[in-house]
Design goal:
It catalyses: K(+)(in) = K(+)(out). By secondary structure, the protein is α+β, with helices and mostly antiparallel strands. The protein has helices spanning about 25-30, 30-40, 40-70, 90-100, 115-145, and strands at about 155, 160-165, 170-180, 185-200, 205-210, 220-225, 230-235, 255-265, 270-280, 280-285, 285-290, 290-295, 300, 310. The strands form four sheets. Strands 1, 2, 3, 7 and 10 form a five-stranded mixed beta sheet that branches. The longest helix is centred in the N-terminal third of the chain and has 30 residues, at about 40-70.
Length: about 325
């Protein structure tokens, strides 16, 4: 078993980091909403708390500043005096008035009077700013919570791929399954072979991507994923594995990236699950154990056998040979 760097981990995470962006990093700020959604949860919560805390303190300070400039703080307890905001005589009371106004609590003890035009303008500004901040941050949190990334964790891939004969043809196969009862609508499977190669012109391609046909022409790539399915790639003259044999498999270096896409039935959002198989995870001359059995009125799936394989007689030669 040879450990080497993967392009895509088994859990679907891509091992690619972008560096030396230079001035191109400003593009992240031009799409700040998407950048905020892509951040990790701890940074989202930190930005959420800091934004509201700073906005509350700034607005409360503005209300306190109006009361201070008008002299309301010193005459707040004078019944004959009409302040800008009744019963605001220090910063905590100004902060409480802002919170009552922003949260539409309105206890009735603190209220703005009609003899304060600057307070009316600030009240309108506070209402607009509060609506914008709420729409931006709450919308960001809602989108992040509704992302279907967690749905991909209930989509399973077999730990290994196998090479054996099916219908008299040598095939590369792996298994996919759905742990939930809710369906994946319009589920589609795609495979990419990632392998280094050199062109006839002498150009070296370190991570060249090649499509593996898993039934695109016949519609077999469109899955009805209600039970575990075995995905099959026929190795023929058009396949990049045309010259692959049991012996050459030991010296090859490649990675098969599998991408399963579909629409989550409950939310209507597109979900994508990924995994990969290196040459060490391709078992020559193996077949997957059956996992379906007929019970009393229904079919049962035994997921304890989902990854299990057994050896079958398979020629050790390549299709070309």
């Amino acid at each position: 078993h040879r450990e080497r760097q993967r392009f895509v981990d088994k859990n679907g995470r891509c091992n690619v980091q972008h560096g030396n962006l230079g001035g191109e990093s400003s593009r992240y700020l031009s799409d700040f909403f998407t950048t905020l959604v892509d951040l990790k949860w701890r940074w989202n919560l930190l930005i959420f708390l800091l934004t509201y805390t700073v906005a509350w303190l700034v607005m409360a300070s503005m209300w306190w500043g109006i009361a201070y400039l008008r002299g309301d703080l010193h005459r707040a307890h004078d019944d004959a005096y009409s302040p800008c905001v009744a019963n605001v005589y220090n910063f905590p009371s100004a902060f409480l008035f802002f919170i009552e106004t922003e949260a539409t609590i309105g206890y009735g003890h603190r209220y703005i009077t009609e003899r304060c035009p600057e307070g009316i303008v600030l009240f309108l500004f506070q209402s607009l700013l509060g609506s914008i901040v709420d729409a931006f941050l709450i919308g960001c949190m809602f989108i992040k919570m509704s992302q279907p990334k967690k749905r991909a964790e209930t989509l399973m891939f077999s730990r290994a791929a196998v090479v054996s004969q099916r219908d008299g043809k040598l095939c590369l196969m792996f298994r996919v399954g759905n742990l939930r009862n809710s369906h994946m609508v319009s589920a589609q499977i795609r495979c990419k072979l990632i392998k280094s190669r050199q062109t006839p012109e002498g150009e070296f391609l370190p991570l060249d991507q090649c499509e593996l046909d898993v039934g695109f022409g016949t519609g077999a790539d469109q899955l009805f994923l209600v039970s575990p399915l075995t995905i099959c790639h026929e190795i023929n003259s058009k396949s990049p594995f045309f010259c692959l044999s049991q012996r050459s498999l030991r010296s090859e270096q490649f990675e098969i990236v599998v991408i399963l896409e579909g629409i989550v039935e409950t939310t209507g959002m597109t979900c994508q699950a990924r995994t990969s198989y290196t040459e060490d995870e391709v078992l020559w001359g193996h077949r997957f154990l059956p996992v379906m059995s007929l019970e009393d009125g229904f079919f049962r799936v035994d997921y304890s056998q989902f990854h299990a394989t057994f050896e079958v007689p398979t020629p050790p030669y390549s299709v070309k040979e």
